[in-house]
Every structure is written in C-alpha cells, then in structure tokens.
Design a protein that fits this description.
The complex is a heterodimer.
Chain A: H1 4-25, H2 40-110, H3 116-147, E1 153-155, H4 157-169, E2 178-182, E3 193-195, H5 197-213, E4 220-228, E5 231-238, H6 270-280, E6 284-290, E7 294-302
Parallel strand pairs in A: 2-4
Antiparallel strand pairs in A: 1-3, 4-5, 5-7, 6-7
Chain B: E1 9-13, H1 17-29, E2 33-37, H2 40-50, E3 54-58, H3 66-75, E4 82-86, H4 91-99, E5 104-107, H5 112-125, E6 138-141, E7 144-147, E8 152-155, E9 158-159, H6 164-175, E10 181-182, H7 183-191, H8 199-213, E11 223-226, E12 230-233, E13 238-240
Parallel strand pairs in B: 1-2, 1-3, 3-4, 4-5
Antiparallel strand pairs in B: 6-7, 6-13, 7-8, 8-9, 10-12, 11-12
Helix pairs in contact in B: 2-3, 6-7, 6-8
The chains are: A alpha+beta, B alpha/beta.
C-alpha cells in the first residue's frame, strides 16, 4: 500500500501538537494564556496556505491511488494473459493423444477396401483432422514463443521489409494489389534493431498476409518505416475493408476472428503471434482502422 | 497379413491403446512386423526378447518414460535405432532427444505416412550395433569437420565463422546424409517450428553455408538442392567417437 508512505506527513504535525498540548496541560511547560492578534490579510494568507496544503495532500493521495489501481489493473491483465497461455498449453497437450489416435485410425481405415462414397467421407475426415492438427501446431508455436531463446543480433529492418514485400508481391493472392515500401534514405537509413530475424520476418509477413486477406484487387498496401529515437516504427497499411469498432479490442487475442474475417482462411492466431513476437522484442503494437477505408498496424521496436 | 519373414521388425511403445491399436495395423500394412508395448518396463523386456530393428518410443508414459528407456538401452550398449514420439513442442526437448541417443523424433500428432518415411530412412542409415550419427560428438566429411559439442565447424583446419542457425542446419544435414530433407522439416527441426512462410529463411541459411564451405550450388560437393523439394547432404559422413 503505497499511500501509507505519505501518511506520516500530516501525522507528524498532529503528534507534535498533541504532545505539546499534553505538556502544557500537565504543567510540564508554563501554560500561560496568550492572545493572538492578526490582521485579516495575514489570516487570509494563512488560511490559503493551509487549504493549499490540504488539497495538495489530497491530490497526492488520489494520484497514488490511481497509479496503484493502474498497476493493479495491469497485473490482473498480465495474470489473465499468463493464465490463458497456460490453458492453451494444457489444451495443446491434452489434445495431442486423441488427435493422434484419430489420425492413426483414419490412416488405418484408408488401407481397407472402402466404397467410393465411404472413401469420400474418409478424405473429408482426414482434411478436417489435418486442419485441427495445424491449429494445434499454431497454438504450440504461440506458447513456444514465450519461452524460446531469442537471437539478439542486429537486424536490418529495411532489408527485411524489402524481402517481405518481394515475397508478398510474388504470391498469387497479391494479384491486382498495389504494394509499396517506403523507407527513409535521408539523412541516414534506418538503424538496426536487435532481434531474431526469422521471428521478425514471420511478424511482418503475418501483417502483410493479413493486408492481402482483407483487400481486393485495386486496393493499396503500403509498408513504411521510420526512425523515432530510440525506436524503429514500422507501419503496414491497407485500403481494405477495415475492422468494425466492436472488434477492435479483441483483434490481438488468440483465436479471435472478427466479423469481417469470416469466410477468409485463417486460424485466428496470426495477430496474436505478431503481438507475442513484438513483445518478445520489447516492442509495442497498435492498430487503427476505419470501416470501409482500411487498416494500419503500427509496430514500435526499440533499437537499444 | 503381408508380413514376410524378412520384414523389418518394429517395437511400438505407447501407453495410449487408442493410438497403438490403429497405428500397429497401419505399420504392418506398410510392410513391417510390429509388436506393441504399453509402457517402458514392458518395452525393455520386449526389446531383449523380440530384437526389433527399430523402436518407436513415446516420451510421456507411466512407470518408466521414453527417455529413461532410451537411456537404459544406450547405457547397456544397445544401439537399436529409436524414433521418439515427442510431446512437448519445445526446442530443448528435441535437442535432448538426439543427445540421449535417439535416431530421430517426430511430434505428435503426426501424419502416419510421415512416420513410415522416417522409419525407412532411419533403417537405411542405421549401422547395426553402432551408435547413430545423431548421437556422435564429431562428424567428419572429408575436409569438413563438425564438432557438435563445441558447435564448431572446421574446413581444411580453418574454423568457419557461421551463425548458430547455420551450424545447427549443417548438423541436421550431416546427421541425415543422403536423405532428401524438405524445407518444412528443416524448419521444424532446426528452427523449432514449421512456419509456412519461413521457407525462404532456410534458403538464406543454406546460401550462407555454401558460401562458407565454398560449395557451388550447380556442382555441389556437400549440399545439393533438389528443386521444388528440399536439400540433401551428398558427401559421405563418418563418425569420430
């Protein structure tokens, strides 16, 4: 309880007053009657000072309480996130054996003589089981990410983004989208970011991939980066369909799929992965979006 | 059953009967003679009676877990090839599996066909009664030496300066010589996950290795590219104990 640390300030004069009162009354000190006289100006000044002191203390106490509440809130959120990750880990673990049994069973069945329509059902079951396995794999990656050792060599973000853009442009899904990359050249190029190049690649790739998913031919996707000492800020912007306001608070959560995301392929883990990678690099992520106008995701990665 | 007398013999060890009851017939149909053990202790007993050519060993089991079984086997000088069925998807677990003398590992849930492919390749590279390449401390391939403990690569008595990832990649390729390794598998084994995008990452590291080894991609001595498939370490690899 941090406010208690400040409580001694009023307690000290109060104790001193009581002590003196006792000393005078008990006759340890000569308890003479005195008459105080003061002009109104002095009294008004004194009253003002006293009030200011009182309000100051009050304000101090409130601000302490507020920041305490903020810290408490943050701790609760962190605990909730940890709990969620722990739950996902257990889920992943508990689902492995049953899924394995299903896959083995299906493979076993596939070797027996089946009527064509039965075979069709089997293929469908296999596809769904593989899908489930992939989802499980993605969950594992996410929890793995929290604990895996991280490379911390300097990464040339410009070069990395160039690679992401080239890779994105070459994909069939990119047809008709205008993809551009804006990097600062003057007065100096982007500073390096200490980190795991492979993970950072996955992070930017996921964002570019999302931009592709939620745009249509004719739309624009823009990747841009600039220095904001001591960070590099990267933005991935698109003129796609945008995210509805009510979905915004949940976009970073595992397995969340927005209303507009239904009908597009994906596991609902892409952005959660982006956030986890950014946080492992002590970075931050933000998203701004306007329905029908597009979305911009901002990443801030410290350079030190 | 199409099991012939000369079919390779497998010992499948897993406490989940729901898995073994389906996996065993599947493996038999794939041309192996299969025996099943439900836990580690039974596995050790069967290993000494049945003399399998390969053991498929689940890691998490009651009574005695897969790693203990593996340690017992290796401790008694039994070098029967082992494929571990790993549960925990952590990189440390994988490294440990190989260090303790497993020949390969595969993460649950896996594609049963992939398991068959792994079994075949482990059987192909197995040298009866000898430690697997995966368990050796040093691998030699002509002028190239890989010290696995120190994570050092020496070419013509010159230590190469490589990124840790490149060394791990070379290590994986050298412990799987003459085997076509898909990019996805390299990502899963060396990077610790198989992210669909990252395949370019593999190519970047292969390029780094080739530069350091002075290997020409069009006329390779060490690493061959199989277009559209993956990579293969084509030089002969020997073990220095």
């Amino acid at each position: 309880m941090r406010p208690l640390r400040w409580a001694w300030i009023p307690v000290f004069p109060a104790c001193l007053g009581l002590l003196l009162a006792a000393a005078f009354r008990l006759g340890w000190l000569p308890n003479e009657v005195v008459y105080l006289r003061a002009d109104l100006g002095t009294l008004a000044g004194l009253a003002g000072l006293l009030l200011a002191f009182g309000f100051g203390m009050q304000w101090l106490w409130w601000s302490r309480k507020e920041s305490n509440q903020q810290a408490f809130h943050n701790r609760i959120q962190l605990e909730a996130a940890n709990e969620r990750r722990g739950f996902l880990r257990r889920l992943d673990h508990e689902l492995k054996n049953p899924l394995m049994a299903i896959r083995a069973g299906l493979a076993n069945l596939n070797g027996t003589a089946l009527a064509p329509d039965q075979h069709e059902v089997l293929v469908g079951l296999e596809t769904q089981t593989v899908r489930l396995s992939n989802l499980l794999g993605d969950l594992r990656k996410l929890s793995d990410l929290e604990t895996r050792p991280l490379d911390r060599s300097p990464v040339d973000i410009g070069n990395l983004l160039q690679e992401v853009v080239t890779e994105t442009e070459n994909r069939p899904e990119a047809a008709g989208r205008q993809i551009s990359l804006i990097l600062p050249q003057a007065p100096w190029p982007l500073p390096a970011v200490p980190g795991d190049r492979d993970l950072l690649f996955v992070m930017f790739h996921n964002l570019a991939d999302n931009a592709l998913k939620f745009t249509v031919p004719g739309n624009t996707i823009e990747l841009r980066a600039f220095e904001d000492n001591p960070s590099v800020v990267v933005e991935v912007a698109d003129t796609g369909q945008g995210i509805p306001d009510r979905d915004m608070p949940m976009v970073w959560e595992e397995l969340f799929r927005g209303e507009n995301a239904r009908g597009t392929p994906g596991s609902g883990l892409g952005l959660a992965l982006v956030k986890a990678i950014a946080e492992r690099h002590r970075g931050q992520v933000f998203v701004r979006s306007r329905l029908g106008q597009g979305t911009v995701v901002t990443l801030r990665l410290p350079t030190r | 059953m199409i099991v012939k007398d000369n079919s390779p013999r497998l010992l499948l060890v897993d406490d989940e009967t729901a898995i073994t009851v389906n996996l065993a017939p599947f493996l038999e149909r794939s041309g192996f003679a299969v025996r099943v053990a439900d836990d580690g202790i039974q596995a050790l007993e069967l290993a000494s009676q049945f003399h399998p050519d390969l053991i498929i060993l689940d890691v998490l089991m009651p009574r005695m877990d897969g790693r203990q079984v593996l340690r017992r086997l290796r401790g008694s000088g039994d070098w029967t090839p082992v494929i571990l069925l790993t549960q925990v998807g952590e990189a440390g677990e994988r490294a440990m599996a190989l260090e303790e003398g497993a020949d390969d590992y595969i993460n649950k849930p896996f594609d049963p066909l992939e398991l068959v492919a792994r079994i075949r390749s482990v059987l192909r590279r197995a040298r009866p009664g000898q430690p697997p390449l995966a368990a050796s401390r040093q691998l030699d391939s002509g002028r190239l030496i890989l010290d696995r403990r120190a994570h050092r690569v020496v070419l013509d008595d010159q230590e190469l300066s490589l990124t840790p990832k490149a060394v791990s990649l070379l290590e994986f390729l050298m412990t799987h010589p003459d085997e076509l390794i898909k990019r996805e598998r390299l990502l899963e084994s060396v990077w610790g996950w198989d992210y669909p995008v990252g395949t370019r990452t593999v190519d970047t590291r292969i390029a780094e290795l080739r530069r350091a080894l002075g290997d020409d991609a069009s006329k390779p001595t060490y690493i061959e590219t199989v277009p559209g498939e993956g990579y293969r370490f084509i030089a002969k690899v020997e073990v220095r104990p």
